[in-house]
Design a protein that fits this description.
single chain, 457 residues, alpha+beta, 3 domains
């Protein structure tokens, strides 16, 4: 079969499998067919796997017991059994839902059933907010929790072989020195069932934050798990998210070097990596999620609870009162403490002066003297600590969302790594830097102060 369309005399390239037009995907560096989902190497047209389209056929007669609800506002399509009613859209809050018979087939490959009940999901949400120390005290209300809804969210589970070239540095520490090596490696490894949610309506970051799911409970899809819940039909295929896919594969490659492939080093830093993936295959699964769109002070907040493990994620607002109070403590705490110490020392010095106790007078005098020297020495450090702590409070109050799990959750340990090592020696450096020398001098000053006190007793 000719790969080039001779009749059209254009740059149209034909799929070796179905003769459909091939398109080059920049993220994957592959040609793909929009007709059959085949992936091909641009140079040789060898197969690089398949990312196929699913559920495009009309619904079959045996699916008559399913119903679709379509949101007239945001376009979300929900699939459920004929006895489960929907009164509002959990994604946008609109009550305008159009009920209709299932129009397209709905046949995922796998499903993980719900294990977390609605009541348990609400309790875990309460605990999650309670553990967020800057959350407003009046954030959680019973009326808000009534809208929590159980969804089966569509996921694409991807298998792939990853090829990566890593450049970075590795450090071996001993008591006095650190030895730095230049890391240069090529690694091939395989990942299995890396999940990518196929819903545009739910944040990808939220879905990654409540991973991982326990794949030991992954079951062949069965309609009997749907009654009482909603299953969202995917609106983003694997071919629509190739940039996300390759970005996560690159991240897994960096983690692989740090966590597994370079254990001979105490510290590993990756400066650059170049990755590509082949042998793609996919499966289509439904994972259980409790979804809550929460309104607080005219702003909407979205939360998700893993319906299997109970993991919670979402962006909790912060209380300005709690935040400002904490920032004030962090900014003023150290100066106030230093001032109190000075006042205490001055009081002791004055008392010794009045009583005529020369030993105590000399002790307090030297203590004040050394304390001033110490403070002058560490003031820049204290200022740095205060700035760091204030920034940390400001960051913590944003309640950052957890990141996706590390590569060890999805790497296929049943296959062997193929790794080429080209590491070279860099240099040896002593560990004591200027800060450490300053700390040593500070310790000597404190030691002299203690000796001075003991000698006068």
């Amino acid at each position: 079969m000719a790969l080039w369309d001779d009749a059209a005399e254009t740059s149209s390239v034909k799929c070796p499998n179905c003769a459909g037009n091939l398109v080059f995907d920049v993220s994957l560096s592959k040609n793909y067919c929009k007709n059959c989902g085949g992936l091909f190497m641009p140079e040789t047209f060898e197969s690089a796997g398949t990312l196929e389209f699913r559920d495009l056929k009309p619904a079959a007669d045996e699916e008559e017991d399913k119903t679709e609800f379509v949101c007239d506002s945001c376009g979300a399509v929900l699939v459920t059994d004929e006895n489960t009613a929907a009164t509002f859209c959990a994604f946008c809050g609109s009550p305008t839902l159009i009920k209709r018979r299932l129009t397209q087939e709905f046949r995922p490959d796998y499903i993980i059933p719900f294990k977390i009940t609605k009541e348990d999901a609400c309790n875990r949400f309460r605990e999650y907010v309670k553990a967020t120390k800057y959350a407003p005290n009046d954030f959680v209300t019973e009326d808000g929790l009534k809208k929590i809804t159980g969804f089966y969210v569509p996921f694409w589970l991807l298998d792939a072989v990853c090829h990566t070239d890593i450049i970075g540095s590795g450090v071996i520490n001993d008591l006095q020195t650190k030895t730095v090596f230049n890391i240069d490696r090529t690694i091939d490894f395989k990942v299995r069932k890396v999940p990518f949610d196929g819903s545009k309506k739910i944040s990808n970051l939220l879905m990654e934050a409540i991973e991982p799911y326990d794949y030991s409970e992954l079951k062949p899809y069965n309609d009997m798990y749907i009654p009482g819940f909603f299953a969202q039909r995917y609106d983003e295929s694997a071919l629509d998210m190739t940039e996300r896919i390759q970005s996560r594969m690159d991240s897994h490659a960096r983690q692989l070097v740090k966590n597994f492939a370079a254990k001979e080093y105490n510290e590993v830093s990756v400066s650059s990596n170049s990755s590509y993936s082949t042998d793609f295959s996919q499966s289509y699964a439904l994972f259980p999620v409790w979804f809550l769109r929460y309104k607080y002070k005219d702003l909407n907040y979205t939360f998700v609870v893993n319906g299997q493990t109970g993991e919670v994620s979402g962006s909790v607002p912060y209380s300005n009162i709690k935040r400002n109070a904490r920032i004030a403590v962090e900014a003023a705490g150290w100066p106030i403490l230093a001032l109190l110490v000075v006042i205490g020392l001055i009081i002791g010095w004055v008392a010794a002066l009045k009583t005529g106790n020369r030993a105590m007078f000399q002790f307090f005098f030297e203590t004040i003297y050394y304390f001033v020297i110490i403070m002058a020495t560490i003031i820049p450090t204290l200022i740095g600590i205060i700035i760091y702590r204030v920034k940390k409070v400001a960051f913590d109050t944003t309640n950052p969302i957890d990141s996706a799990p590390d590569v060890d959750q999805y790497i296929d340990f049943g296959t062997k790594f193929h790794m080429e090592k080209r590491d070279t020696f860099g240099y040896i450096a002593t560990k004591m830097n200027d800060n450490e020398r300053g700390e040593k001098n500070l310790g000597e000053i404190i030691g002299r102060l203690i000796v001075s006190f003991l000698s006068r007793r």
